[in-house]
């Protein structure tokens, strides 16, 4: 829920309940006022009536107005108190029921106790209440709608710089190397926010650039000593007078330096993908690339006695930098080869939506979850750096692809698909 | 054949120089951008080996200036930067080859030889070692005038040996030369063995001497017995 929507909702709920409470209170007050008025009139009429019956004789027809005064014989019950009440009386001509306010009391007329009811029609007052309440409700309602509309427009305008800032931050891309430019709105809070954000973005950009430089420098600084070790070992092995032990040590040094170099290159590649230092992805048909890779490594498969089957229902095209596509497939193929067995197979199935690489092989020792983690190796002390599948995962994560591994009765499947948006 | 090695790591420069000197080249060294710039201005070289990250400047600028003056000089870049952009830029400014550190000296040597072959004779030259004769432009190999048919990898292997005569080559360097450095080592080392076995058999069958010697624990050496 957006902020404006939220405040609008709260505002609307609050003002609506306020509106209803006001309307009810208003109605109550007017009604009370009118009753007050009617009742005081009735009391005055009661006094007039008492004065009248005291001086003159009362006959049923004395008072002309219909339903105005009703006099009936009766005895006053105990604990009776004179009181007002609402009552409906049918009009003689129109047969309509009309609301009256009635004052009831007992009084002796010509030595006889009578029950007297003096009435006053409420029809006019009711109409008055209706009209006043309706008018008030309309005015209040219009006021409510008006303020709501105004509030909506106002906060929309007030928050405008905030949304502008938000949009710019969303567009901000670290790897593009472009600085973040934010406006200076007149509202102090927003201006401060923009200043802070801008400062943070600058720092971020600076750190990112430093990190990138560090990556490159680390590469250079590490590769050069490794090149040196390699070169010296190569010179050393030209010597004819090496003993068997010395040869073995040299071989170990040589292997270790090569492993370190591969490890270093793998980590650098990972860092580069994470930092999105590869630009310009292009449309690449992975199934065809894979076909070429198989052709290139044919002897290797023949040597290990591994059968290659490729089934292309439709090319699987993804958007990747060429060098990463090569790395992705290279690592998957080398993985399928490494964890295979003599006389095994690698089968590739490609469709428009996915690429499946299946291979035969012994069951894994590791949990499938850690398969894509760095430095997780199937065999400890093996020559591999344990980065291949981590690189595969990183490439997939960075370029909108999903990779999944499943195993079924000695068949290992890697499924490559586009990530659902 | 005159060469210049531009590399700021003194020890590495010396290793390269001494390896190439053994191969019969006259080598000079330059450790900084300025020194290299000066030497390239004063003398003419057949081939220059350049490191990209140099104290005082970028190796690519060095190549650019050199290419404007003398276009025929062969250039091989050796760099720790394994970025595609660098490789592309290197080729754009006119370098002939790009080797990523760490590399094998034997590999560098093979690249230098191949470059010089291409430069001097447009590829139309034969490599001879005793009764073995290789025609690189036609990818053909003759033993005592008789053609022997080799697979692509066997041919590459023979050429690699002939470029590094009488030098101990590690199995890893051979594997990388044949399959690139992405190959898994344990398998490729086995394959090196089987390729060498086949190459040796094919050569000996046609009446060549057996020139491939295996060096225990290290690799192989090709040369006169």
UniProtKB/TrEMBL annotation, chain A:
EC numbers on record: 2.7.13.3
GO molecular function, one term: phosphorelay sensor kinase activity
Transmembrane segments: 12-34, 128-150
GO cellular component assignments: plasma membrane
Superkingdom in the source lineage: Bacteria
SUPFAM superfamilies linked: ATPase domain of HSP90 chaperone/DNA topoisomerase II/histidine kinase, Homodimeric domain of signal transducing histidine kinase
Keyword annotations of the record: Kinase, Membrane, Phosphoprotein, Transferase, Transmembrane, Transmembrane helix
Catalytic reactions of this protein: ATP + protein L-histidine = ADP + protein N-phospho-L-histidine
Name of the protein in question: histidine kinase
Claim: Phosphoprotein is one of the keywords in the record: yes
Domain Histidine kinase, chain residue ranges per copy: 217-421
Annotated InterPro entries: HATPase_C_sf, HATPase_dom, His_kinase_dom, HisK_dim/P_dom, HisK_dim/P_sf, TCS_sensor_his_kinase
Family annotation (Pfam families): HATPase_c, HisKA
UniProtKB/TrEMBL annotation, chain B:
UniProt xrefs under CDD domains: trans_reg_C
PTM annotation (4-aspartylphosphate): residues: 51
GO biological process, one term: regulation of DNA-templated transcription
Matches recorded under InterPro entries: CheY-like_superfamily, OmpR/PhoB-type_DNA-bd, Sig_transdc_resp-reg_receiver, WalR-like, WH-like_DNA-bd_sf
The OmpR/PhoB-type domain, residue ranges: 124-224
Coiled coil: none
GO cellular component terms, semicolon-separated: cytosol; protein-DNA complex
Keywords: DNA-binding, Phosphoprotein, Transcription, Transcription regulation, Two-component regulatory system
Residue intervals of the Response regulatory domain: 2-116
A Gene Ontology molecular function term of the record: phosphorelay response regulator activity
DNA-binding interval(s): 124-224
Highest taxon of the lineage: Bacteria
Classification via PANTHER family: REGULATOR OF RPOS (PTHR48111)
Protein name per its UniProtKB record: DNA-binding response regulator, OmpR family, contains REC and winged-helix (WHTH) domain
Organism from which the protein derives: Siphonobacter aquaeclarae
């Amino acid at each position: 829920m957006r902020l404006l929507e939220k405040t609008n909702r709260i505002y609307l709920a609050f003002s609506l309940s306020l509106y209803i409470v006001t309307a009810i209170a208003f109605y109550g007050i007017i009604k009370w006022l009118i009753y007050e008025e009617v009742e005081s009139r009735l009391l005055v009429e009661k006094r007039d009536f008492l004065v009248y019956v005291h001086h003159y004789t009362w006959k049923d027809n004395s008072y002309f107005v219909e339903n105005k005064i009703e006099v009936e014989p009766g005895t006053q019950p105990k604990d009776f108190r004179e009181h007002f009440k609402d009552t409906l009386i049918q009009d003689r001509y129109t047969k309509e029921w009309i609301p009256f306010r009635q004052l009831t009391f007992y009084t002796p007329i010509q030595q006889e106790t009578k029950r007297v009811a003096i009435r006053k029609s409420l029809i006019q007052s009711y109409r008055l209440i209706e009209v006043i309440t309706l008018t008030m409700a309309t005015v209040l309602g219009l006021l409510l709608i008006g303020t709501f509309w105004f509030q909506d427009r106002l906060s929309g305008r007030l928050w405008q710089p905030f949304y502008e800032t938000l949009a710019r931050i969303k567009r901000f891309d670290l790897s593009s190397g472009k600085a973040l430019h934010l406006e200076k709105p007149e509202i102090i809070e927003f201006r401060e926010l923009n200043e802070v954000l801008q400062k943070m973005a600058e720092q971020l950009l600076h750190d990112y650039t430093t990190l990138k430089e560090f990556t490159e420098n680390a590469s250079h600084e590490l590769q050069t000593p490794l090149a040196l070790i390699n070169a010296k070992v190569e010179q050393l092995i030209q010597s004819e007078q090496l003993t068997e032990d010395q040869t073995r040590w040299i071989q170990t040094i040589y292997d270790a330096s090569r492993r370190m170099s591969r490890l270093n290159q793998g980590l650098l590649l990972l860092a580069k993908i994470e930092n999105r230092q590869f630009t310009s992805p292009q449309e690449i048909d992975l199934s065809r690339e894979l076909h070429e890779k198989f052709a290139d490594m044919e002897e290797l498969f023949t040597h290990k006695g591994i059968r290659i089957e490729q089934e292309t229902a439709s090319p699987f095209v993804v958007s990747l930098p060429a060098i990463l596509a090569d790395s992705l497939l290279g690592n998957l193929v080398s993985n399928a080869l490494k964890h295979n067995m003599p006389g095994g197979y690698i089968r590739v199935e490609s469709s428009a939506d996915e690429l499946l690489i299946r291979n035969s092989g012994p069951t894994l020792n590791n949990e499938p979850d850690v398969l894509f983690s760095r430095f997780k190796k199937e065999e400890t002390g093996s020559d591999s750096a344990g980065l291949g599948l981590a690189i595969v995962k990183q490439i997939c994560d960075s370029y909108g692809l999903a990779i999944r591994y499943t195993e079924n009765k000695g068949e290992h499947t890697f499924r490559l698909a586009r990530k659902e948006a | 054949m005159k060469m210049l090695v531009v590399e700021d790591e003194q020890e590495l420069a010396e290793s390269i120089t001494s390896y190439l000197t053994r191969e019969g080249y006259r080598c000079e060294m330059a450790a900084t951008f300025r020194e290299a710039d000066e030497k390239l201005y004063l003398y003419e070289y057949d081939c220059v080996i350049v490191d990209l990250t140099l104290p005082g400047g970028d190796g690519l600028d060095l190549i650019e200036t050199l290419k404007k003056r003398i276009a025929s000089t062969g250039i091989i870049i050796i760099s720790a930067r394994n970025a595609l952009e660098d490789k592309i830029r290197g080729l754009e400014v006119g370098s002939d080859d790009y080797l990523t550190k760490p590399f094998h000296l034997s590999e560098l040597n093979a690249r230098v030889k191949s470059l010089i072959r291409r430069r001097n004779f447009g590829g139309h030259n034969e490599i001879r070692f005793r009764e073995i004769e290789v025609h690189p432009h036609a990818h053909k190999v003759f033993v005592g005038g008789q053609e022997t048919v080799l697979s692509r990898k066997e041919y590459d292997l023979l050429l690699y040996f002939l470029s590094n005569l009488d030098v101990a080559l590690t199995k890893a360097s051979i594997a990388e030369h044949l399959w690139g450095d992405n190959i898994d080592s344990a398998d490729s080392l086995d394959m090196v063995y089987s390729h060498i076995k086949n190459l040796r058999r094919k050569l000996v069958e046609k009446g060549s001497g057996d020139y491939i010697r295996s060096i225990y624990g290290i690799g192989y050496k090709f040369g006169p017995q």
